[in-house]
Amino acid sequence: MTTQSSTVGSGAATPAPLLRVTNLHKAFNGVPALRGVDIDVLPGEVHGLLGANGSGKSTMIKVLAGFHDADGGQVSIHGRELRSPFGPRGLRDQGMGFVHQDLGLAPAGTVLEHMALDAFGDAGAMRRVDWAAERRRVNDLIERFDVGVDVDATIDMLTPVQRAMVAVIRAVGGQERSSDADRRGQILVLDEPTVFLPRHEVGLLFDLLGRLRANGDAVLLVSHDLDEILQVTDRVTVFRNGETAGTRATAGSTRDDLVQLILGARDEHVAKGAAVVRDDRPPLLSARGLTGNRIDNLDLDLYAGEVVGITGLAGSGFEELPELLYGARRARAGEILQNGETVAKPKPISSMRRGVILIPADRKGQGGVLGLTVKENMSLPFLTNRAKGFRVDWKALAVQAQEACDRLNVVPPNPDAQFGHLSGGNQQKALLGKWMDTAPSVMLLSEPTQGVDIGARREIFKLIRAAVAEGMTVLCATSDYEQLVEMADRVIVLDQGHVRAELNGDDITKDALASAVYAEEAS
Ligand SMILES: Nc1ncnc2c1ncn2[C@@H]1O[C@H](COP(=O)(O)OP(=O)(O)OP(=O)(O)O)[C@@H](O)[C@H]1O
């Protein structure tokens, strides 16, 4: 796929923007989230929207989608000026479509039903859906955008990337139906669509974005993955602290340029510690013959002072290893040993007591309680040891939570903020802080920096390296090769539940990881 659009990159005079946001303001309880952001999105471009966690990306998108009302500023679409509030449908009827990270698809519904749901929305519950017409329309969309799914397939039958593509054409189809704008020249907003996709399938989604671009539409793509942004976008806009830090053409921009714009500072790499010294102490955690749904008869030793990465293609088993070791998922066979001694019936509660903790990938679903405050979330592991009789020492817990927020740069650094209102990266930092305070000996991580910006990522790596230097061991299951290169002392590559390769020290490079993961496919 080319990285330049014919419309934008042709050297012709810049076309009029499809979407122009000027001086947009929004505060929550008096705290500004947007302090006057500006962005122009042109026809025929994929425009990246970057920024640290909490910089205001989602807030702007939620204003455009009608979820929040802006406090001030202008928005124009196709040159027509509009002012927030935009009502519950946001700018959907003006030619904008939105695909949120969770995709908004129900597993049991078919592709056709999902698309027709939008028709129900338009027509009201009383009107009959013309199923034959819907089927023609949906088939036409699938063909036009070469999505390759069956209209009657249920969502749970589709691969993750097919689901993402269905969500995209569903948004496109919704626009075609409701927009009074010209069919060409619509704006599709994708909020971190790739974080849950297997790396090797992301290209299929990007090809679809290329087809939209060729159609004269525009895509606004929010992502923290700079390689992805450099690969797929024509221009990028960076938000910093609720303001626009700048807009750049992607061609000619480097990763470091973008990092500097995001952070307002140069990128700083975290040094890995010295190599682990393996004395005659037993490993902190081991597996022998461990077998799960995918993992098959795996032997593994995790030693004090090391970060061990585990990776592979989706379905190779690497994703289930943290949960098996933690006891959140029952093994079919095999045993787990801690400090050389067999662990009888591993369960989450006993793992926690033994100093083994798990930070799951889906932090919103599993890691934190959205309706509680940051302090309450951070206090959960300590409620018993901070209890005096029936009373909990909230004062001590508040001090502890404040210290963790400050140490980890959680934004806002306010333990009384609602956890669910924190941006994704800040939620992850708060969760890490909570578990680090329990001084674990084994930390099992699953995609620990998904949705986390580059600055917070560095802080998380630093914390992990510091804890490892004190004698902890970390297992990090991820398909993010860059993270493995930066963080891991050794990486185990799985294939169909078995160890395919092990890379150590300086041999851990992105290329080496990719060729180990894809070795069989390439041959
Ligand atoms: N409903 C809300 N109530 C209070 N504060 C909020 C609310 N939504 C967002 N914020 C705050 O507004 C600021 C901007 O958050 P926003 O979610 O827009 O950032 P973001 O750039 O999308 O971050 P991320 O990359 O982590 O998703 C943050 O400080 C956040 O805590």
UniProtKB/TrEMBL annotation:
Keywords recorded for this protein, A-Z: ATP-binding, Nucleotide-binding, Repeat, Transport
InterPro entries, per database record: AAA+_ATPase, ABC_carbohydrate_import_ATPase, ABC_transporter-like_ATP-bd, ABC_transporter-like_CS, P-loop_NTPase
GO molecular function: ATP binding; ATP hydrolysis activity
Chain ranges of the ABC transporter domain: 19-521
Source organism, top-level taxon: Bacteria
The protein's name in its UniProt record: ATP-binding cassette domain-containing protein
Organism: Aeromicrobium yanjiei
Lineage: Bacteria, Bacillati, Actinomycetota, Actinomycetes, Propionibacteriales
